[in-house]
Sequence to fold (587 residues):
Amino acid sequence: MEKLNNWIKEMAAMCKPERIVWIDGSETQKKILEKEALSSGEIIQLNQEKLPGCFFHRSAKDDVARTEHLTFICTKKKQTVGPNNNWMSPRAGYAKAKAIFKGAMKGRTMYVIPFSMGPVGSSFSKIGVELTDSIYVVLNMLIMTRVGSAVLERLGQDGEFTKCLHSKAELDINKRLILHFPEDNTIWSVGSGYGGNVLLGKKCLSLRIASYIGRRESWLAEHMLIMGIESPNGHIEYIAAAFPSACGKTNLAMLIPPEGLKRKGYRVWTVGDDIAWMRVDSDGALWAINPESGFFGVAPGTNSKTNPNMVKTIQKNTIYTNVLLRPDRTVWWEGADGEVPESGIDWQGRLWNPGMKDEQGNVIKGAHPNSRFTTPVVNCPSASFRIEQHHGVPISAIVFGGRRAHLAPLVYESFNWRHGVFVGATMASETTAAQAGKVGQVRRDPMAMLPFCGYNMAEYFRHWLNMGKGMSKPPRIFHVNWFRTTNQGEFLWPGYGENLRVLEWILDRCNNKAEAIKTPIGYLPRSKDIDMTGLKLSENALEQLLAIDSKEWLKELDLIKEFFSQFKKDLPKELWQEYEALRERLE
Ligand code: GTP
Ligand code: SPV
Ligand code: MN
Fold:
């Protein structure tokens, strides 16, 4: 414990907190913290009859999403982080952040949160300790990670842990930095109080730092959901799927099978909705765990039709952030169940009525588009019984996907692992409210990891190629797109539960039970290969969803070339070969 204690002393000397409190993970301590946060106004208690154990929190107006432009990877050499990360030298990073951290916790308490990503004691798990001056962060970490004394015991006398330091400081966007020091296993985050910027076990540790460690230790840390699909004969197969932020991972991970499928009796088991750690086991297959123990899910659009399992999950012990507060102290957001409330307090704390407009004439939303709930996985009716199993689940298929109004078909299968890596590496998607900045801009987002890969993406692609060579039973790799639209901008595919129709084809392909046609981009189902019983789409919709426009794809190839070129000689030549082969097939 000497290492841990010395580090805490050093950080406290810099941040100057009034006192230091260790989080033990007990219910008693949690209650005390809730009381304190209630009395300071940091959280609001919701209607305890309707929403027992639930709280509400509003973050600062300019602190409502991850801030990628303020997120840095700090390594000795700039080359280590590649062209897609913001870089600083560790010396500059520590110095800049120190200036903000200095005395930032004056008059406040510094909480010490020992946490485990992954089940405590699993050889797969990683331990972190987060120091923070925010009770909101503590309460969220208690849901999202395994916290407390058991973790300290596991850490032992001088075990390895990720040193995570966070302070709200002044919540000033001009004094906000999210810094990663992979060479020191350290994260420093200052000036924010929201989500992925401050729950340091999530994107910072489990993706940016873990991806760096994973390359060294030969495993994968990915922005992926994990779900089990139990088929009518009772056999459960697992898939992992990478979609960029706010592109449907949470919804897919807990879907309810649609009416009408010819094969009845499917059941979905949720293992995770955001992050997967995957390694090759002694059977030569890829096995995955979800390192988290909670969901930090997007509120808007969540209702009993789109995601009935989540609606049930968030009825208790849930923290709601930046949603609309109703007069009866329940919550609402755009696309929630029931009638639009007649009035409420919006996410900015202002009186709100439906249809209100701002000076530019735009409708004012009650909830922020990136408003979220933090809720324990155990609340979820579809939670997998394998979550606490230390070996995780075997993965049959990897699915990449994005939000593309055009181009990408509903689903296609790659020819092999190497081509699958190319498909993942060339993914693109329209930006969403999950990151600060413009919404709806198409950007390349390889494996949905653009904002989360802790090192040079060219090396990351090489790591993926190598992982394939290490498996005797590699998962098959697919690409999906639920978001293709008509020229009028309407979604062609109904999505949500109906997505199981596509997953059914994917699993059948894995088991050599489904037909496909070979196209230049990969194997595609014919319209009749997708079970559409009980689902009526407009005429030709399925054909449009499965159409491939070679001219458009050739244009896309130019963008891919531009993207690949920035890696110069670092890009694995296999990916250039895949690029050339695709161009030839299209031409
Ligand atoms: P992060 O938590 O940011 O990583 O997001 P996520 O990938 O888990 O996305 P989530 O499932 O929360 O979905 C984000 C938004 O996309 C929500 O508003 C959903 O209602 C919407 N969405 C999810 N699945 C579908 C779908 O199949 N079709 C359509 N049209 N929209 C969807
Ligand atoms: C994402 O943006 O991909 C999220 C939300 O899952 S956050 O935790 O804020 O990163
Ligand atoms: Mn995410």
